[in-house]
Amino acid sequence: MVYEEMRSKAKGLLRPLTTKPLQPVSCHIHLFCLLCVLILSALFFTLSEAVCNSQDQESLLWFSGNVSSSVSPLNWNLSIDCCSWEGIKCDDTSESDVTAISLPLRRLSGNLIWSVQNLHRLSHLDLSHNLLSGPLPPGFFSALDHLMVLNLSYNSFSGELPLEHGSNKFFFPIQTIDLSSNLLQGQILNTSIYLLGAFSLISFNVSNNSFTGPIPSFMCMSSPQLSHLDFSYNDFAGRISRGQGRCLNLSVLRAGFNNISGEIPVEIYNLSELEELFLPANHLTGKIDNSITRLKKLTLLELYFNHLEGEIPKDIGHLSSLQSLQLHVNNITGTVPLSLTNCTKLVKLNLRINRLIGNLTELEFSQLQRLKILDLGNNSFTGDVPEKVFSCKSLTAIRFAGNKLTGQIPPQVKELESLTFLAFSDNILTNITGALSILQRCRKLSILMLARNFYDETFPSNVNFVSSDGFPS
Ligand SMILES: *[C@@H]1O[C@H](CO)[C@@H](O)[C@H](O)[C@H]1NC(C)=O
Ligand SMILES: *[C@@H]1O[C@H](CO)[C@@H](O)[C@H](O)[C@H]1NC(C)=O
Ligand SMILES: *[C@@H]1O[C@H](CO)[C@@H](O)[C@H](O)[C@H]1NC(C)=O
Ligand SMILES: *[C@@H]1O[C@H](CO)[C@@H](O)[C@H](O)[C@H]1NC(C)=O
Ligand SMILES: *[C@@H]1O[C@H](CO)[C@@H](O)[C@H](O)[C@H]1NC(C)=O
Ligand SMILES: *[C@@H]1O[C@H](CO)[C@@H](O)[C@H](O)[C@H]1NC(C)=O
Ligand SMILES: *[C@@H]1O[C@H](CO)[C@@H](O)[C@H](O)[C@H]1NC(C)=O
Ligand SMILES: *[C@@H]1O[C@H](CO)[C@@H](O)[C@H](O)[C@H]1NC(C)=O
Ligand SMILES: *[C@@H]1O[C@H](CO)[C@@H](O)[C@H](O)[C@H]1NC(C)=O
Ligand SMILES: *[C@@H]1O[C@H](CO)[C@@H](O)[C@H](O)[C@H]1NC(C)=O
Ligand SMILES: *[C@@H]1O[C@H](CO)[C@@H](O)[C@H](O)[C@H]1NC(C)=O
Ligand SMILES: CC(=O)N[C@H]1CO[C@H](CO)[C@@H](O)[C@@H]1O
């Protein structure tokens, strides 16, 4: 969109209004009329006169000749100006250089990405969601030294990131690099002249490939505006570098589903713009430092499937924007801090399979009116079933299974109109019969697990609608 704006501005400024002789007009030569004609003829010019750069046309033909499409071929007609071809945009200089190729979701296959390399003025390249394959050729990035947006996501590009030897440029205007969901591999090294010179980089997404080595933080040095980094779903290993803390404008850091180990460096907790910290399914150890509560903009904190220990930061309630707190399957100990219920925007709270203890009845759950998913299963909570949970009107799934809770499921449960999943199995509850009669009124309830609770003659011993676990995620 910014691009469109720039382009139409440039058009207005650069297009010479007076180069075309005035057409004969039937109205009296009146200042207003003259203006109309000038504007109309200028428009006519814009439509008819752009004739695309012949070298660029040749590169495009090469490209189109080397890709095929199972839906419909690129219908790039030689008798039409290439600036008007599907997906192509040109600039407004006299050269009419090709500046944009945008052909997402075209089912294009082939592997000759290098044919676009000669389009020296290309600033936007979007070939996302196609079937393009093969490696990115050496020098690919530095050849496209006007590129601002590169989106090659959802293809089958393979091999390592290209070497960028021999470039005499040290500044590249690239802002967005999306190479996600391909088959790329190897390390992302600080020897990449291209990435080191990407001073304007805002967003870098390499998720869902097979990259190895440490997650790079060197871009934090050169790109002060860096705001989105996504390294998830790869084979990155090693520790998160403290240098990551220099990405001071970072709002999204995603590196989940890798092989990252060590502690989360406290420098991360200085990234005051951070909104999403997504690091699940790694081998992270150590504690979650209380200084994390400085990240006032955090909406998503997902650190599940790691080996984190220590307690939940006691000031967690300071994270007043938090919507998703998912710390399940770790080794977290201690009690749930009372301040947690001050995170009133929470939608998902998952603390399942940790070593949490304590009495939940004092927590002001009723403040969590947006909460949809509450999973506190498989810990060591004691005391009565926390009644206040049942005043969270948005709840769709509740799991307390595998604790040491006593008492009864309160009758307010019938007021949870969206409830589909309820699991209290493996606790020490009483009056399961009473609960069952109440739960009949929860119309949407489709999964109920109450097995293995306190048993005597009057209570059914094994009450489950289903045996499999359909807890929503
Ligand atoms: C190419 O464009 C010309 C002029 O508009 C048209 O006559 C011709 O049919 C087109 N060719 C194809 C193959 O679409
Ligand atoms: C890349 O393209 C995909 C699909 O066409 C889109 O969903 C995604 O947002 C784009 N990436 C960026 C960074 O704009
Ligand atoms: C990165 O790309 C993937 C798709 O491949 C997408 O799901 C994810 O949201 C993107 N990350 C960011 C931070 O935009
Ligand atoms: C990874 O990419 C594949 C193939 O494009 C896609 O089917 C899958 O959904 C992606 N996975 C993630 C987690 O983005
Ligand atoms: C930081 O990122 C925001 C968008 O997330 C942007 O508006 C702002 O200009 C950036 N600041 C710097 C110093 O780059
Ligand atoms: C993950 O890292 C460990 C060392 O920390 C290594 O032994 C293991 O092979 C790695 N696994 C994968 C799948 O790369
Ligand atoms: C975090 O920022 C504070 C100032 O805001 C600074 O004093 C402190 O040294 C920083 N900590 C780290 C670990 O960078
Ligand atoms: C938790 O800690 C115990 C002992 O300290 C260890 O045996 C277990 O593997 C740990 N679990 C996780 C998920 O890290
Ligand atoms: C929750 O927030 C309120 C208002 O900011 C504050 O008075 C209260 O002490 C907080 N509760 C906890 C347990 O932190
Ligand atoms: C849990 O807390 C409630 C309310 O403070 C109290 O009445 C109850 O005795 C406590 N239960 C246990 C097991 O500590
Ligand atoms: C069992 O539960 C039902 C329904 O909530 C209630 O009416 C009944 O009083 C309870 N029985 C006991 C002994 O608490
Ligand atoms: C492998 C392949 O198809 N190469 C073709 C790429 O496009 C040029 C120009 O159309 C052809 O000459 C090549 O044969």
Automatic annotation (TrEMBL):
It is found in: Cell envelope. This is Leucine-rich repeat-containing N-terminal plant-type domain-containing protein. It comes from the Eukaryota. PANTHER family: OS06G0587000 PROTEIN, POLYGALACTURONASE INHIBITOR 1. It holds the Pfam family LRRNT_2. Signal peptide: none annotated. Belongs to the polygalacturonase-inhibiting protein family. Keywords: Leucine-rich repeat, Membrane, Repeat, Transmembrane, Transmembrane helix. The gene is A06p014680.1_BraROA. The keyword Transmembrane applies. SMART domains: LRR_TYP. Residues 54-91 form the Leucine-rich repeat-containing N-terminal plant-type domain. InterPro entries: Leu-rich_rpt (IPR001611), Leu-rich_rpt_typical-subtyp (IPR003591), LRR_dom_sf (IPR032675), LRR_N_plant-typ (IPR013210), PGIP (IPR051848).
